[in-house]
Amino acid sequence: MSKPSVLKKFYVNQNRGCFSMPKWSLNPYGHACAFRCVYCYADPEEEILPQLDPGQLEIELPNAEFLPVRLGTYSDPYPPVEAELCITRRCLEIISRLGRPIEVVTKSELVARDAELLGKAVVEISINTLDTSISTKFEPGAPPPERRLAAIRALTGKGVHVVARIDPIIPLHCNEENVSALLEALAHAGVGHVIAKFLQLTSGNFDRIKAIDPALADLYQQHGVLQGRYRYLPREMREGLMTFLRKKCDDAGVKMSVCREPDLCFLSSAPCDVHLKALMREHGESSESPKT
How far is 108 from 48, CA to CA, in rounded Å? Predict the structure, then answer.
């Protein structure tokens, strides 16, 4: 019996405001995540085991459609055990050797270990606050914000392109003051592009949110609007802070993309994948008509 493919197509849904380019999705540690973010769709687990054989990637990737490879779609590719196992690092070595553009999404400072493999990559580091009381509450297993900032500084200092994901913006906790402080810190760390998205609740994360923050759950229950299986706050409850963030980005010379919020996409100053598309052009390939 053949093994299941380790490469999956990244799901793009333009109806939900996702205009990402086609890419492969690779999850070295499956669908479980040690960071246990209460708002996430990944399965929260303290003990994480690798779910991918890098040897299988080496077999599949040369014959796969020429697209970027994204690590971290369903779970973080840098759980604590990665420091010892190096499964993600082995995947990066294979992808880099085969000349495919790379996108990494993580909350871990461990990504800075692999800086020499990320010269032809876009690294997206998720950080939505500098306030450790907020991050500890909603991201109990994740590295604190200062360690993520240190990773950003380390990577940009070595010429790696870093995008900061201010995702999710959490109502009742993220306000103009702390968003402004965060953006200032990111700009000083060398970030030139941020991707922003408000918290969206589903049946999978609503109970977890309610258990730690009943007021936040009530806000979404009373005012939330269902779009498919996702519950958004109404536009008028999101637009003010997102507009403020866009102005701060413009003032700092930082590009901004709004992620999966179709009614606020007009606030984007750049596509979310602008740097990944540039990498594809550098590789002599067209992201509009990829080679097979």
Answer: 15
Q: Which two tokens mark 166? A: 């201010």
Q: Indicate the domain borders of the chain.
A: 8-282
**From start to end of the chain, where are the E strands?**
8-9, 24-26, 32-33, 43-44, 69-71, 102-106, 121-126, 161-169, 193-198, 225-227, 230-232, 255-258
The answer to whether domain 8-282 has CATH 3.80.30.30 is yes
DSSP-based three-state secondary structure for 172: coil
Q: Which amino acid makes up residue 61?
A: L
Pairing of strands 43-44, 32-33: parallel
**Which DSSP letter does residue 80 get?**
T
pLDDT in tens, 43-76: 666 566 667 889 999 999 999 999 999 999 889 9
- Distance CA(7)–CA(96), nearest Å, equals 15
How many Cβ atoms are within 10 Å of 208's Cβ, its own excluded?
A: 18
Helix (H, G, I), strand (E, B) or coil at 24: strand
What predicted TM-score, i.e. pTM, was given to this entire model? 0.91
